[in-house]
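for the writeup, i need someone to sanity check this before i put it in the appendix. the sequnce is what the collaborator sent (i think, or maybe the updated version? ugh). structure was predicted straight from it, no edits. if anything looks off just tell me and ill rerun, i have time this weekend
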Amino acid sequence: MREHAVVVAGAGPTGLMLAGELALAGVDVAIVERRPDQGLAGTRAGGLSARTLEVLDQRGIVDRFLAEGQIAQVTGFAVTRLDISDFPTRHNYGLALRQKHIERILAGWVGELAVPIYRSLEVTGFAQDETGVTIELSDDASLRAGYLVGCDGGRSLVRKAAGIAFEGWDPTTGNILAEVEMEEEPPLGIHRTALGIYAFGREEYEIHDGKIVFAKEGPIGVMVPEKTAGATTEPTLGDLRDALIAAFGTDYGLHRVNWISRFTDMSRQATAYRKGRILLAGDAAHVHSPVGGQGLNTGVQDAVNLGWKLAQVVKGTSPEALLDTYHAERHPVAARVLRMTMAQVALQRTDDRTEALREVVTELLGMEEPRKRIAAEMSGLAIHYEFGEGHPLLGRRMPDLDLTTADGPVRLFALLQDARPVFLNLDAPGSFDIAPWSDRVRSVDAGYDGAWELPALGLVSAPTAVLIRPDGYVAWVGNGTQDGLQAAVNSWFGQLGSRPKSAD
């Protein structure tokens, strides 16, 4: 029986990101993926948010995505575009890039980290005991792992087999999504009608001055609303033709479907992100309507929150209790995403009363304070973990400062590329005694003279030191003393005296 420290079920964006994080930490991780390769049929997520771009930047791989995507102000709430170009981040924009490209680039990175992927296989069951998990595969073989992480989508077998409830709301709307061949070109773009919102587009496009300009040739991507939500059968060419004729009086010479699927606004969330040695991330932990574009981004950020914690537990530097902070931190984030998504779905209804409400919301979002608050929420830049009272930086993401060090200038994110915790001393060298933790926390003496500014919050007072987790969030803030530093290091990175064990 093949053995790994961690097995990840699913090689989508969440599973790939988690495997990369674990590999960076020196953990023996493998992925089980049902697809024979990274190819992806159909249209899934369409881009990366500002916070996800920051995450990729801190691992040194963001340029790979920027080289293939299109930078644009794509943050929005329902139908209202929200500009974040004045936000204090290097990535004060979104990146338009289809999921198939995001996955391909992530898979390339994971390949460089030598993570094995068992392809054309699925997890069909598992049994966990005191020392690990025995995982059954679809070829009747088995794997043994210390932990199993379900990144296997909204219909997650891992979640179901673990007996974790998936609570929430049934669908109220349904849509057919397809790529088709048509004799006539339909009106490209988004169309609001009395029957719902329709959209036509092409695979290739460019963004000019915030507007999408589609290619002149190629198959047509179509999204049409359905009369009833929650259909369980696969949609057909006939279903699509009927919907088009009902709205436009023509099917534009529809004669071939390359692929077809449906999605709804079903909103559900796992009641627990962990059950013993089983963990959930991404769509396995939360599903919702794609409006707002937060699904893929939330999953990738789940992975970055979980990866370093799981690595420390596998290595023995931290107790298993550290894994409970994963649910404590990420469950509220996804609950908020579900709430924001449901609100946007409601605003997309086409009756007169919703139209009046939408006008009021649009007017509000034209004001400075509401714009900043909602835009920070939609871009992921407002995420804040509750670590108790203290400096505004506590529990928030560390800004990517341009630091000066004895070795020359360095960006803060560059210090996080190896996914290790960092103690950043901005006071005189030697002001803090971090030596006892030198085997697990990197210590950097640096200077920074600029303003400290956070998205949605604005200017904050400059700290004398910060303790930064591998995911970039601030675990402790110093004000000239070491008060609370030892407790923070022990809590997040293991008690002194705990010996790391081999991760193999």
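The chain has four domains: 2-46+98-169+268-348, 67-94+349-383, 174-264, 396-493. The CA atoms of residues 356 and 462 lie 45 Å apart.
thx in advance!!
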